[in-house]
Each structure stands twice: as C-alpha cells, then as structure tokens.
Amino acid sequence: MQKLAEQVYRLTQPYRYSIWLQAQSRITEGIAVLQPLAASGPVSERAWAYNGWGVAATARQSARAGTELLRRGQALDPENYLLTANIAMHDNRAGRVEASLHGLQSALMLLAAHGAEYTLPDRMDSAAQGYRSLIFMNQGALLDAAGQSRLFM
Q1: 2, 15, 56 from 10: Cα distances, Å
Q2: pTM of the predicted structure, to 2 decimals
Q3: Three-state SS at 41
Q4: At residue 141, what are phi and psi to the nearest 5 degrees?
Q5: Planar angle of CA 118, 121, 124, nearest 5 degrees
Q6: Residue 130: pLDDT above 80?
C-alpha cells in the first residue's frame, strides 16, 4: 500500500514528493525526481524543481553547485521569492554581505508583490519577518533583528 501511495504522490505532486523523500533521508531518490522535473517538467514546476535540487546540491556537493541550480530556477521564474532568498543566503554564507542584503531586500519585495502566488498567507508573514530579521542582521542592527526573530517564533 505504501508503494502505491508513493507512486500516486510522485505522479501528482513530484516536487513535494521529492522533498518528502529527502526528509526521509532518501536524498538520492529525491534528487532523481527533481532532475527530470527541472529539465522538462511543466513550466510551473521547473523553477521549484531547481530550488529543491539546488538546496540538496548545496548539502551534498557544494554551495557553488547549489547556487548554480538556484540561479537556473530564478531565470525561469524571477518572481519566485524563495529562489531569491535562497541565493541571498548562499551569498551570506560566502561572506558576500552586500549581495546577500540586496538579495534579501529583493526577496522581501517579491514576497510582498507575488507571495500569494507561491505560498499561504500565514507563511508569507513568517517569511517576511524572517527576511527582515536577516536584513537587520546584515546591517548590524542586532536588537532589531532579535525583535523580528521573536515575532515569528
């Protein structure tokens, strides 16, 4: 029964299925679902597939490999705030603070303008607070960052 349920999930929700696989420590299987989805899946799913693949590649390969995949996704869907935020986080970890700050500000603007197309309203509020907190941190305003962080905990 489990196998049949997984097959249905894979066919109807491939991106979510791949994320579920990765959460079950089945990383290789999850990536195997994302690769063809990114290459030739429906246009609406390709950017999401690059996002999931990019996050997995960062964890398994390198930040450079992950960032390249995230940028491919961003090129397909430049209004996707999550791709922009994930690239900004890569910039932050690489010490590119100005690029990270710019990316987080862009992600916050994209979230405000297009977030409802990508996520639920309650998740938009949480994401916005998280991005504002990271922006404050990048600017050195640690008390403001802590205040924003408390809002979404």
Answers
A1: 12, 8, 18
A2: 0.88
A3: coil
A4: -90, 75
A5: 70
A6: yes
